[in-house]
Design goal:
The protein is 8% helix and 53% strand. The protein is mostly beta strands and 419 residues long. It has one domain (2-418): Beta Barrel (Porin). The chain has an 18-stranded antiparallel barrel. Strands 8-9 form a two-stranded antiparallel sheet.
């Protein structure tokens, strides 16, 4: 405990030094951020979590950006007072990196950063960087769906295309509901679970061989952007189960994929595919480890009418060695060999884009579950924004992706002042 507090103090001092000493680094200095209040409540009468609130927080974000020659320095830190359960002050360095350009062909980015790849709209195949689904369900800004990673990113630009390589020394998983803020389906109890003890999965040991490596090659072909992907690491959700320790864990994973995105007719078309090679169960015979799978995604977006934009996506997930999966299945929680997901986003602007109504629906015909998000945003002026919204879940089975969160319907209100 003393060691962790000491480390926290050292990091906090480094952040203060970064912001306070930034004017000495360069004349081109930009400082900004926002103050935000977010409050949300759950709609179910019977709550499984300690609090009736899905969000109750005040947030201050400070952002700093400066450059000098071929080097750029960027920092973004959040200070939060969160009283959903026990009142607590928290802070997080969301981004803090140094970017350096060498010979105008190679970029190095070292430090805490947000990483995004792929073409899908809130649907991810080759983007195997960490996500924060608790923030997503609570109504925080879309930027908080992506969790930060401490990594080294190298990009090489050539006439043939651009090659990016990201090395994350310490495995960074998705942030998923643990039962404290949102309840979830517990397969061990075969029921929804909330409250202590909170779900904690076993992470891979902090060793060199357990680091994550991701690579992307990108090239323009006419009006389209073509990308190839590769990843070595672990499943980002704790999909494995160890019957000896009776705990969930993150199985090993190789992933390969490709995508195409560009203009078609009066809209934007994207295609993406990927292969998940489950390194611990390549024959599909282990009931507590996910099988390998092939995934595909197609999406299209266009302006439907004045100030109205819409898109639609279809994702297919085909499980390999399904006969072995059925043969070794334990319990009744069975998924389909071909899992399908359909999503659609509609965005309508009013009053010279000062008012925005947005809705997004995830619907799985195979799993028979649905997740619906909506928000109404009012931009009072350049600094002040007011938002109300909600998250609704439903499903025929408790163990499906969205059905497992069926007890977490919530509405929220948010006020943001930017500076």
């Amino acid at each position: 405990m003393k060691t962790s507090r000491l480390i926290s103090k050292i990091v906090a001092a480094a952040v203060v030094t970064l912001f306070a000493g930034a004017p000495l680094l360069a004349e081109d200095l930009q400082i900004g951020g926002f103050i935000q209040g977010l409050y949300g409540g759950k709609l179910q009468e019977r709550k499984l979590t300690p609090s009736d609130y899905s969000a109750s927080e005040m947030r201050l974000q400070l952002r700093l950006e400066t450059s000098s020659g071929d080097a750029d320095l960027f920092g973004r830190v959040d200070f939060v007072y969160d009283d959903v359960t026990d009142p607590e002050y928290q802070w997080e360095l969301r981004e803090g990196y140094l970017k350096y350009t060498l010979f105008r062909k190679v970029d190095f980015k070292i430090g805490r950063q947000i990483l995004t790849w792929g073409t899908g709209d809130l649907v991810f195949i080759n983007d195997l960087f960490a996500k924060d689904y608790e923030s997503f369900f609570a109504g925080r800004d879309d930027q908080y769906l992506k969790a930060p990673q401490t990594a080294i990113r190298t990009e090489y630009y050539s006439p043939v295309g651009a090659l990016s390589i990201v090395w994350t020394p310490r495995f960074t998983p998705n942030r998923t509901p643990t039962g404290e803020r949102f309840s979830y389906y517990n397969p061990m109890m075969q029921s929804f679970t909330g409250g202590p003890p909170y779900a904690l999965a076993s992470r891979p040991a902090d060793r060199w061989e357990n680091s994550e490596i991701a690579a992307r090659f990108q090239r323009g072909v006419g009006n389209y952007t073509v990308e190839l992907y590769a990843y070595r690491g672990f499943f980002k959700n704790p999909l494995g189960f160890n019957p000896v320790t009776v705990s969930a864990y993150y199985p090993k994973l190789f992933a390969y994929g490709a995508s195409v995105r560009g203009q078609l007719l009066s809209g934007i078309l994207w295609l993406e595919g990927g292969y998940y090679d489950s390194r611990e169960d390549r024959c599909g015979a282990k009931p507590f480890v996910p099988n390998s799978s092939v995934m595909g995604l197609i999406g299209y977006e266009r302006q439907i009418a004045t100030d109205l934009t819409g898109n639609i996506q279809y994702q297919a997930d085909f499980m390999e060695d399904y006969d072995q999966y059925e043969l070794n299945l334990i319990g009744t929680e069975k998924r389909d060999e071909l899992r399908s997901l359909i999503t659609s986003r509609l965005t309508r602007n009013f009053r010279m884009e000062t008012v925005q109504l947005s809705s997004f629906v995830f619907w799985s015909p195979s799993d028979e579950d649905v997740y619906y998000r909506f928000s109404l945003l009012y931009k009072y002026n350049d600094a002040l924004t007011l938002t109300v919204g909600g998250n609704l879940f439903d499903g025929q089975k408790m163990y499906t992706d969205f059905g497992s969160f069926a007890k977490n319907d919530n509405l929220y209100a948010k006020m943001t002042y930017g500076f």
